Every structure is written in C-alpha cells, then in structure tokens.
Amino acid sequence: MSRVLRPSRRLGTHWLTSTHSYPNYSSCKHMSTASSSAHVAFVGLGNMGLPMALNLARNRPTELDIRHITVHDLHPPNIEKFMRLAGEEGLNESSTTYSAAQTLADVAESNPDFIVTSLPTCEASESVVQTIMKHSSRNQDQSLKIIDTSTISVFTSRKLHDLVSSSSSQNDYIDAPVSGGVKGASDGTLTFMVGCSSPETFSCIQPLLSKMGHSIIPCGVPGSGTAVKLCNNAALAAQMVGICEAMNLGEALGVDPKVLAGVMNVSTAKCWSSQVNNPHPVAARDIGSGASAKNYEGGFGCALMLKDLNLAMDEAVGQGLDMPVSGLTRILYGKVDAGGYGAKDFGIMLQYLKEKK
Ligand code: NAD
6-phosphogluconate dehydrogenase NADP-binding domain location, by residue (predicted)? Predict the structure, then answer.
C-alpha cells in the first residue's frame, strides 16, 4: 500500500489544561429521546471489533443503557458470526436488541446516536465516515458521535473530525485508538486514548467506551488520541527489539533465559516486553504470560506493528523530526513481515535475530 506524506500541524491540548470541569453525563444531548438509552452502530467486526461489539451487547453496567445495536462489516461472514455468537450467548434475551446492516447506507439510515468503528487502514476509515455522512438522516436537533477506534494517521483523524463536526454543531468525530490487543478486546479491558473537541464530548462517550475498556484516557484535542497511540507503539517496538537483543546475547553467553528475565524484571531493564510479553518462550513459560510460549500466536502481530511504525515515521517526517531507532525497528519489522511472519506476535523478532547469527 502506498503511503502519502502530509504536512502535520502541531496538536494542542487546550481543554485538558483548562479549568473546565467535566459536566455530568445527564448534560450530554446526544440521544434522540430524553431517556439515557442509546442506539449504537458498530462498523468493522474483525479481530478487535467483533469482541468489542459483543461487549457492547453484553449487559455491562455503566451510566449508559444501550437499547439497540446495529452491526456492519464489509465481509458478510463477520456479521453472521456476530449474530451467531450473540444468539448463542442469549444476548437477544437482554434489554438490548440488535440487527445486521448489509450496507453503510443502512447503518446511517438506522439513525444511531453513536457509531463505533474498528477498521484496518486510513483509507477504510475515510471511506466509511464519508459514506456514513453522505447517508446520515439525522436532523439538526439530533447528534451523531462517530468514535473511531482504528489506528490511523493524525492527519486522517483531524480531517475526519473536520468533516463530521462541520456537518452540524451536534455531530462529532472522536479518535479513540486502543491498546490491549485481542485479549483486551475480549476481556473488555482495553485502554482507549481519546482525542476529542471538548470535555462535554468526552463525558458523552466515556460511559460507552467503559463497556469495552477499563482505562478511558482523555489525551486532548482531535488527533491527540491517535498521536499518543503512535508514540506509544514506536516506543514499544524499540523496547521489544532491545529485550530481544538482550535475551539473545544472554542465551549465547550461556545464561538461563529464566534467570536473565528474572533479573531484568527486578532491575533497570524491566518493562512490558521483559515482564508481560517476554519474547523468549522459556522465560515466558516461567513468567506465565507471553505469546512466545504459544509459538508467538495470539499476540500483537508484526504486520500491525509495521503499520504503526510506518504511521509514526510519517508523522515524524511531517514534523521534521529524526527518529533513528524507529527507522531501524521499521526496517527490522519490514523484514520479519516479508519473511511471512506478519501474523506472529512481534516478539518473534528474537527468532529473526537468532537466524541471523
Ligand atoms: P481486522 O483486519 O481483523 O478487522 C478489520 C475489519 O474491518 C474486517 O472485518 C474488515 O472486513 C472490516 N472492514 C474493512 N473495510 C471496511 C469497510 N469499508 N466497511 C466495513 N468494514 C470494513 O483488524 P483488527 O486486528 O480487528 O484491527 C482493527 C484496528 O485496530 C486496526 O486499525 C488495528 O491497527 C487496531 N488495533 C489492532 C490490535 C490487534 O491486536 N489486532 C491492537 C490494537 C489496535
């Protein structure tokens, strides 16, 4: 996929640093009725979106009641899978009803209060949001909040915010990318990094996101959630490659991987990649967590890390910043991905380093 570099503007965080306090949820005028129950649509039922949508349908208590969920995916079997799993769990017997939309026009015309998206690329987010806005039939008194949980560029996040918010003062686009992977999506323990226009908007969407995650963090103005996500993952890639190099060197020097990881985890090298997702299968088994112990299955894929590094590097170029370490990790993850390991957890970098010996 070709990537287009755009000049980036700097992001402010003004409402975060203002003295404005968060309003009560009751002041959120997003619903089409006076009640605090909402119609939510979910677009993109992939590895992340499907479990997130199921968590919306489960009756997880927050300040928000969801009266109806409309689901849609470009790939019809994913819609069928949601309907089947929701049926098997008996979710249709709860107070929340749900339905399948065959097209995005159907989604827009079903008149939801919120649309949550979980899509693979900037192009997919752009096309979905533009189509929704084209077909949206909400009147000026009703509001539509589009919450995009996809990892995309800051430029795209801001562009979509401008598109949606200029359609009506009631409409808004919020960037809310996630951390926590497929497990976090299934367990409802995701972290959401939220970029939005005001504390009122944040208060409106927080109860909804709380049905899918544990940490809902306001990061500032539109685009700032995306910026935080890209910065986090650029640092994470460098952290993982560092741990892989150290585990590889230690093993070559005859040190037991369990001993090395154990010392790191009470010393200065301690981090998520040494402790929670150690790339060495022996150390991961000892710690009791980590995709490496399961042949690098079910973790955060190298292809997704490469995508995030490409997005982060594009932002760095737009800002005229040098990111030499991220430049290198991008090359390394590009090689691992090209080697056919795109779906494997990004800790598989350790095996790549071993093969290079
Ligand atoms: P995925 O490819 O499994 O799912 C994307 C879904 O979007 C697919 O079901 C696809 O059919 C659907 N889709 C694509 N274009 C569409 C369109 N135009 N209209 C409707 N549906 C469309 O991807 P995923 O792993 O679920 O990731 C989703 C997003 O979350 C990505 O942006 C990814 O970077 C981010 N993310 C993923 C993880 C992870 O561990 N998988 C972790 C954090 C963030």
Answer: 40-219
Q: Is residue 62 predicted with pLDDT exceeding 90? A: no
Class of domain 227-355: mainly alpha
Whole-structure pTM value: 0.91
Q: Do domains 25-221 and 227-355 have the same CATH topology?
A: no
CA distance 90 to 218: 34
How many angstroms does the Cα of residue 289 sit away from the middle of ligand 1?
A: 25
Q: How confident is the model at residue 90 (pLDDT cuts 50, 70, 90)?
A: confident
CATH architecture of 25-221: 3-Layer(aba) Sandwich (3.40)
121 half-sphere exposure, CB direction, 13 A CA radius:
10
| Residues contacting residue 209 through CB under 8 Å, at least 6 positions apart | 147, 176, 192, 194, 216
Per-residue pLDDT tens over the stretch 331-353: 999 999 999 999 999 999 999 99
92 pLDDT tier (thresholds 50, 70, 90): confident
Give residue-wise pLDDT tens across range 8-56.
Answer: 566 666 666 544 333 333 435 544 433 468 999 999 999 999 999 999 9
**CB 142 near ligand 1, within 6 Å:** no
Report the catalytic residues: 229
Task: Look at ligand 1, atom 34, and give the residue with the nearest C-alpha.
Answer: 151
Write down the domain spans for the chain: 25-221, 227-355
Mutate to test the pocket of ligand 1, among 43, 72, 74, 131 (most ligand atoms within 8 A of CB): 74
**How many CA atoms, within 13 angstroms, populate the side-chain half-sphere of residue 216?**
20
**Residue 309: CB atoms within 10 Å:** 26
DSSP classification of residue 63: S
Counting ligand 1 atoms within 8 A of each CB, the residue from 156, 304, 308 with the most, and so the one to mutate, is 304
175 Cβ inside 6 Å of ligand 1: no
Residue 74 Cβ < 6 Å to ligand 1: yes
Q: pLDDT tens, 225-247?
A: 999 999 999 999 999 999 999 99
Q: 147 alpha carbon to ligand 1 midpoint, in Å?
A: 14
